[in-house]
Amino acid sequence: MSLNVYLMPDYLTLLICIELQKRWPTTLVLLITPPPIDEEGRLRNPYVENPMGLPERTNEAAGAYAKACVDVAGECGGPVVDIWTKMQHISDWPRVCLSDGLHLTQSGNKIVFEEVVARLREEGISLETLLVDLPHIAEIDPNDPLKSFS
After folding, report:
1. pTM to 2 decimals?
2. Where are the annotated coiled coils located (predicted)?
């Protein structure tokens, strides 16, 4: 029996996760899956001429990437927002979430925003808890602005 517990791609993923956590231990990396693809919408709105009538992207492929994203977050112990799954639970999601089968509508963008904000809150991050990197404009001395940044 082999002592290798992880397949090489999984092992490489873990090494990357460990290195990122060592370099930036206080940084939260939030992964976001790709959105679903509406293949019929892609056929109606092709980028280029499409004589074969096949979508250049498929929801199945987007789902595989979404699963990989969720799996990597799990391996790394980090948070993830699964937009691919979330959007498909919405009634008439292709019309509501996607303008051309690929790009997000205003509603689609709102869903992503709300999910990201909710996930960040679950991790204890909000506008109220963020550290300020720069001084407030009222605190900057107009005669010696650099002094305010030291």
Report:
1. 0.77
2. none
Q: State phi, psi for 81 to the nearest 5 degrees.
A: -115, 115
Q: Which of 4, 39, 20, 30 is nearest to 119 (CA)?
A: 30
The long-range contacts involving 93-97, CB below 8 angstroms and separated by at least 24 positions, are 93/36, 93/38, 94/36, 94/38, 94/40, 94/41, 97/35, 97/36
How far is it between the farthest Cα atoms of the chain?
A: 73
Residue 129 falls in which region: left (phi positive, over 0), alpha (psi -120 to 50) or beta: alpha
Span of 9-13, 22-26, 114-118, 142-146 with lowest mean pLDDT: 9-13
In tens, the pLDDT along 61-113 reads 999 999 989 998 998 889 999 999 999 999 999 999 999 999 999 999 999 99
**E strand or H helix that includes residue 93:** helix 93-97
> What are the chain's domains?
1-21+28-40+56-126 (3.40.50.1110)
